[in-house]
Amino acid sequence: MEKTTLANGVAMPLLGLGVYRSSPEDTITAVSAALSTGYRLIDTAAAYRNETEVGEALRNAPVGRDDVFLVTKLWISDYGYYEALHGFDRSLKKLGVDTVDLYLLHQPMPNEWQRTVAAWKAVGRLLAEGRAKAIGVSNFSPELLADLIDRTGIVPHVNQVELHPFFTQEGLRATHERLGIATQAWSPIGGVMRYFTDDPEAAPSPLSHPVITGLATRHGKTAAQVILRWHLQHGFCAIPKSVNPRRIAENFAVFDFALADAEMTAIDALDTGLRSGPNPADIDTVKYPLRIED
Ligand SMILES: NC(=O)c1ccc[n+]([C@@H]2O[C@H](COP(=O)([O-])OP(=O)(O)OC[C@H]3O[C@@H](n4cnc5c(N)ncnc54)[C@H](OP(=O)(O)O)[C@@H]3O)[C@@H](O)[C@H]2O)c1
Q: How many CA atoms within 13 Å lie on the side-chain side of 145?
């Protein structure tokens, strides 16, 4: 497994399993299949409502807790200093673990910025106490990253953002590089493009783009494998989601081939500059009223 070293020296696997939209039952199957296949990073969140099942699958896995890089996220209803500490304790309890390897603020809330900053200070405390081995944010723009760091002096180790061949986030990645922040790619194979449409089959997808399918044929690989290889060669941490053990194995079989520089550039050129997920500037607790139960 290829890894990247975060700014505080912690090693993070470059490929993991995501469990957004995985039902509780499917989560157990998927996490178990992934850990048996060789995955060593699992990405969940309080808002996915499957932390309990992730924890259950971890306890029954053929590998020890120390061998798995566990990521979870604080939901916006728990922003604020003491609220965040409580949200973290609740996640640990559901997961059945003493520490997490990476703890993220799930979203910025520009309209509720004081609470966002207070939550980040609490996450800094969790790092200082060793309860989170590394900390980060998700869906933060360069401007919001700069302001968060200005106000707290705490630089995230990771920013987890929408990133796939149709939305390559070049500008944001340059900011990450300057600040020493690792880029973690959500919807790495473009899953988000099918979420908010009545006809998912008709939605555009990098998986069916001729540049990608052409490279797949050339390398004797699948489209998903070509895209995941592109992430790895860029040094992004990719967390593809699947509840299908066959696809979970497929998405992991990406360490036995390499894309040439020109092939990487051809995929880079597919960028549309358009995100498919929600605009992070619009997120607040009024538009997203979900609350996490204890
Ligand atoms: N921080 C955030 O705001 C945020 C937002 C979204 C996602 N995430 C994280 O990122 C993870 C991945 O993102 P995502 O789930 O949105 O999208 P994704 O991983 O790009 O795509 C997942 C979709 O692709 C399908 N799929 C998986 N492997 C495939 C393959 N080899 N060939 C064809 N189809 C395949 C899956 O279906 P099957 O399950 O049926 O295989 C699912 O519908 C999430 O699970 C979550 O952990 C974070």
A: 25
